[in-house]
Write a structure and sequence with these properties.
mainly beta; about 375 residues; Neuraminidase; five-stranded antiparallel β-sheet; single chain; about 45% strand; 27 strands; four-stranded antiparallel β-sheet
Length: about 375
């Protein structure tokens, strides 16, 4: 009898925990809109949170990081967060001038050294900053100037690309304003004899509507394309490899957003499929498109789902399908205007869409 009672108690506790989890995964905002709840809201940055990037610790996944930028004018910086949202103050770098966006590339060969690097735009100095991970050591000899000779030199977005044929590493940078046709500049990154990163300009490209600005830039490593948000117009797509030319491959999402289309990130399902997530900033939600294009019409990406979140006016995001503790189907990170970053379980996105979105059965093995 006692065993039956204990068994019933265990089942009851399990049901309560399950129900609580379901209730906390989704909740209604004051306007009655059901929203997906984050698993974690990080500690706040000093001034103005802007853009996250995810660094995977393949030898110890539990000690993976989220890097988040603070674009405060005087005391901006790059914050290092653990998976519980706590700031690692020993690793974080502050005192920078309006750090805007950040991107990470792991396992790159620069000057016969295999490195993990992070590159961020520093608007206050018209430079990009390069760090070696996980040391969080600056390896740019004080900063690398971008958009030299231009009237408008404030760098904003940043995307890194490793060319699969030869391993060459590139940084694609957007700016506050600039001319259509050469709005983005692409630089090849190398190491000099002293171990500092050097940048060589290899391309100017990118149409711009002129309606607002271009901030978010992201490279899809699966198909080798670069996407960027021409705010209030749509998402533009080009080849990431400068040797493949400057033809615009697509412009999509033009009628899908409430106001600004912003942060872009990619969730990979297989070696030939995945999702593009784009922030609908004014509506506090993300639009999900097919990464692969329709076979009939080249580079037409299908809108698959809309994900309402609690992150407020998000203009920067990142996602990984790599299994991490607490985020076994993947981790999605979005900045929020309350100076924090929100961590979401990919599985909650799958549940919200009733399985319309899928999860990748992934491991932490390094590709």
């Amino acid at each position: 009898m006692k065993q039956m009672t204990i068994g019933k108690i265990i089942i009851a506790v399990f049901l309560v925990v399950t129900l609580f989890t379901c209730l906390t995964a989704f909740s209604e905002d004051p306007h009655g809109q059901e929203r997906i709840q984050p698993a974690v809201i990080t500690e706040k940055v000093f001034g103005d949170s802007d853009d996250p990037a995810i660094w995977i610790n393949y030898s110890d996944p539990a000690n993976s990081w989220v890097l988040g930028t603070d674009k405060d004018n005087r005391n901006g910086g790059i914050y290092v967060y653990d998976l519980s949202g706590k700031i690692n103050r020993k690793k974080s770098i502050l005192g920078l001038k309006r750090i805007n966006n950040i991107d990470i590339l792991q396992g790159v060969n620069l000057g016969n050294r295999i490195l993990d690097i992070a590159v961020a735009t520093e608007r206050g100095t018209h430079e990009i900053r390069v760090l070696e991970l996980p040391a969080m050591k600056m390896i740019d000899n004080g900063g690398i100037e971008v958009f030299e000779g231009e009237a408008e030199r404030d760098p904003m977005g940043i995307a890194l690309f490793k060319r699969p044929t030869d391993g060459a590493v590139f940084a694609i940078v957007s700016r506050k304003t600039g001319p259509s046709g050469s709005y983005l500049w692409q630089y090849q990154l190398t190491l000099d004899a002293k171990g500092f990163v050097q940048a060589k300009l290899v391309r100017k490209f990118g149409s711009f509507s002129g309606l607002k600005e271009i901030e978010s830039v992201a490279v899809d490593s699966l198909f080798g394309h670069v996407y960027y948000s021409d705010e209030q117009v749509g998402i533009r797509q080009y080849y990431a490899d400068p040797d493949k030319g400057n033809e615009e491959l697509s412009l999509f999402g033009s009628k899908d957003f409430t106001a600004d289309n912003e942060g872009i990130s990619f969730y990979y399902l297989t070696d030939s499929s995945g999702y593009i997530l784009v922030s609908d900033q004014g509506a506090n939600q993300f639009k999900v498109y097919s990464l692969e294009s329709k076979a009939v019409v080249s580079y037409q990406h299908t809108l698959l789902a809309t994900l309402p979140v609690t992150a407020s006016e998000s203009d920067g995001s990142e996602v990984t399908a790599v299994s991490l503790p607490g985020y076994e189907a993947g981790l999605f990170v979005a900045m929020s205007t309350d100076r924090s970053f929100h961590y979401y379980r990919w599985q909650d996105f799958v549940s919200y869409t009733n399985g319309k979105l899928q999860a990748r059965a992934n491991t932490t093995s390094k590709k």
